[in-house]
């Protein structure tokens, strides 16, 4: 699937209308050094990519608002450079970038300090991501001060600052059909990676071998990269929420919690599954697993337009808390135990977050202190869990059981659709896939 450049241009037109007046400046991400002169693989800035589909570093989008007749879309990008292209690879250069990506003008990145002050002259407002990067704060203020320095020549500097990220966050929250297609693909490829390790896993393997197979499957399927560092957590490691060591052997009788997914055309999936290393749930593991699964179904059922964002979390909490009572880990009434947050030692994170170009995607969760209502096109995770560390009030049969089940769902007109449904999660499905491979 190629990026649909008309869609990206239409987003810029929409943003220009929202801005109304002034100049918006948005830079892509810098390249990141891993150590000495070795780089991390390059990943563009999500806001920048959403508006441009332009994949190269050292690029800046400048939008000048002022009605249809006077608005302009400008890109600054790296020039063609035969020497650098021999070493590092292809660059579009301004001329081709303007044509291919549909800008009104494109200039060399090296000219930005010369050109930007002129573009800011006599503009009432500048919108940029202030506070996100001190170097950019300095740079934009430098350009504004250059304009101020020309006051006796009649130039007026922008007097108002607007947060560019806030404007774009609002646009990114509900996904269009094109984005949902890309997210479905990211979820399908990620679900296949989960199926692949279900078929592979055996006692005695290492967490690292499972991680290697996840990465192989994601890349072979067409994902550009993992959407985040994979969590491959056997046994007690599953009770460490951000475990990424992935370096321990997998033991017969233990569970394996995997939180891993790929990125496709910039869009993330985010999937967690938990299954027995030896292919058969023990009675105790199954008891806990079925509680988490029931909590997840209840939460998914609560994902529907008009429900506040927090409703799925509340639905999951009720089932988890009743489950903790049934397991004799808590005693009392569900309402009171939720009120006092008695479940927190066993479930300490929220059930959902937005998902999109970023795995923890942008967008406010509350408006003026009130949970936002769900709307069609919003994409979120549903990921309840239970984490039972050794403790005096936990029977030894339950020690080190850590379970999270995480799916990605898009809100539809009538409810929701589970994008990651192809990753098995029912006990009998998991056991069948593991037995038959
Ligand atoms: N994989 C990150 C998360 O589940 O939020
Ligand atoms: Mn998540
Ligand atoms: Mn996750």
Q: Overall pLDDT, averaged?
A: 97
CATH architecture of the largest domain: Alpha-Beta Complex
Low-pLDDT stretches: none
The ligands bound in this entry are: glycine, manganese (II) ion
Structural class: alpha+beta
Share of β-strand residues: 15-25%
Q: Give the strand order of the largest sheet, numbering strands 1, 2, ... along the chain.
A: 6-5-4-1-7-8
For the CA atoms, what is the radius of gyration? 25 Å
Number of helices: 14
CATH class category of the largest domain: Alpha Beta
| Quantity of strands, as a count | 21
Percent helix, as a range, is: 25-40%
Walk me through the topology.
Layout: H1 5-19, E1 23-27, E2 33-35, E3 38-39, H2 46-52, E4 60-64, H3 67-70, E5 72-77, H4 82-88, H5 93-101, E6 105-108, H6 112-120, E7 125-128, H7 134-148, E8 160-163, H8 164-173, H9 177-200, H10 207-221, E9 225-226, E10 231-234, E11 255-259, E12 262-264, E13 267-268, E14 272-276, H11 283-301, H12 311-326, H13 334-339, E15 366-367, E16 370-371, E17 379-382, E18 385-388, E19 401-404, E20 407-411, E21 416-418, H14 427-435
Parallel strand pairs: 1-7, 5-6, 7-8
Antiparallel strand pairs: 1-4, 2-3, 4-5, 9-12, 10-11, 11-14, 12-13, 15-16, 17-20, 18-19, 20-21
